[in-house]
Amino acid sequence: LVPRMRSFGTTIFASMSALAAERGAINLGQGFPDTDGPPEVLEAAVRAIRSGHNQYPPGRGIAPLRQAIATHQQHHYGLAYDPDTQVLVTAGATEALTAAILALCDLGDEVVVLEPTYDSYTAAIVMARAVPRPVRLRHPSDTESAYRLDEDDLRAVLTERTRLVVVNTPHNPTGHVLTDAELDIVARVAVEHDLLVLTDEVYEHLLFDGRTHRPLATWPGMFERTVQVSSAGKTFSTTGWKIGWVCSTPELVTAVTTTKQFLTYVSGGPFQWAVAEGLALPDERFAQLGARMQAQRDLLVPGLVSAGMAVHPSEGTYFVTADIAPLGYHDAVDFCWRLPDLCGVVAVPSSVFYADPAGVGSLVRFAFCKRPEVLTEAAERLAGLS
Ligand code: PMP
Ligand code: GLN
Questions:
Q1: Ligand 1 atom closest to Cα of 200?
Q2: Residue ranges of the Aminotransferase class I/classII large domain (predicted)?
Q3: Other C-beta atoms lying within 10 Å of the C-beta of residue 3
Q4: What is the fold, at CATH topology level, of the domain defined by 3-30+284-383?
Q5: Counting beta carbons within 10 angstroms of the beta carbon of residue 245, is it exposed (0 to 12), middle (13 to 18) or buried (19 or more)?
């Protein structure tokens, strides 16, 4: 393995899922649902296979899916993308993000990422021989109730080599939904410094407590400098299908297509047909997906609170972060490896999402994308830790 990739090892998600399987513990580590998505979407995939959509789809994705993505962007956010030139279907958001980073970043270019950082961004930046520049979100504290991007913190990491900012909202692993004020900061800085922005919006339909998703591409001056990425995996609880997409200007989509075609070329033929149907579901069905995830959050969080953890607010996604320091534990890595023995649950230490984990050693990420009975059982087991 080349030296620059040696620190990456096996992803924490795979390690923790293996631990859960080995111990028969409840897996609140890797973020994947334990039930399948809307039945009509599943049926559409079966129909697509039976009706012979089993060969290579076109390089940019089948026309009905590109049209459905464009219609979804228009309907939910008022964003106008031409399905022929401004939409690209990818092998999940992971390939979309990697292909975009490889297409847009050159040797030594600097890429700003919000920290904690979803693991694949840093790996893709390093594969591109670019340099990650994390800006740490301010953490909930005595004076701040939620995570927060601070403008001075963002400005402090910029240099003349800064090329791209990666923005993930709703944010994995914190569950933070960036506020309009935080998105204003990104937009202001991006326009002022003429930066490109890559937005990871895979949790766009999983927001809680009445929040709504507002893509950064809708901000003034942002449409032409934003590469929007999303995926069907989270929205439709079909993480194994790996259907994602990119929306941007024709020039930027062509750039991303150039690298993408040599990563996978194409993927997921029959699933593309099914996701096209899923994206056209009525608004109430999307609202139900978010409401169900919120109800699941509300089954798990009381267990964390009863255990004595300090729980950070989860405003969206599949995840909630909790501080185990009040329980007397200070090393979340050690805690997570012992958690199956302590109470039959698996979770992920948040330190893996930080380049420098100073000050975050006692934070743990729990996933609540699980059936209610599983979450109730997990909450009881965790409450027993106190
Ligand atoms: N971005 C974030 C923030 C994620 O949580 C995930 C899924 N774990 C991905 C990207 C990858 O999405 P996909 O499975 O569609 O590649
Ligand atoms: N996105 C998922 C998570 O955060 C995991 C995906 C993966 O295993 N790469 O848990």
A1: 1
A2: 25-382
A3: 6
A4: Aspartate Aminotransferase, domain 1 (3.90.1150)
A5: buried
The C-alpha R_g of the chain, in whole angstroms, comes to 20
Atom of ligand 1 nearest to the CA of 32: 8
Cα 134 to ligand 1 centre (Å): 19
Gap between the Cα atoms of 359 and 336, Å rounded: 17
Ligand nearest to the CA of 369: 2
Ligand 2 center to 213 CA (angstroms): 21
* Residue 247: its H or E element: strand 243-247
What does the mean pLDDT of the chain come to? Answer: 97
Q: How far is the CA of 276 from the centre of ligand 2 (A)?
A: 23
CA 18 – ligand 2 centroid, Å:
13
Residue spans per domain, the chain: 3-30+284-383, 39-281
Most distant CA pair in the chain, distance: 59
User: How does DSSP classify residue 335?
Assistant: H
User: 172: Cβ below 6 Å to ligand 2?
Assistant: yes
Segment 21-56, tens digit of pLDDT: 999 999 999 999 999 999 999 999 999 999 999 999
User: What single letter denotes the amino acid at residue 283?
Assistant: D
Task: Name the residue among 287, 269, 296 with its Cα closest to residue 368.
Answer: 296
Q: Is the pLDDT of residue 91 over 90?
A: yes
What's the rounded Cα separation, in Å, for the pair 237 and 32?
Answer: 7
Sign of the Cα pseudo-torsion (183, 188, 191, 195, in order): negative
Q: 310: which residues sit within 8 A by CB, 6+ positions away?
A: 322, 323, 325, 326
386 pLDDT band (50/70/90 cuts)?
confident
Element (H, E) at 136: strand 131-136
Mean pLDDT, range 309-330, rounded to an integer: 97
Protein fold of 39-281: Aspartate Aminotransferase; domain 2 (3.40.640)
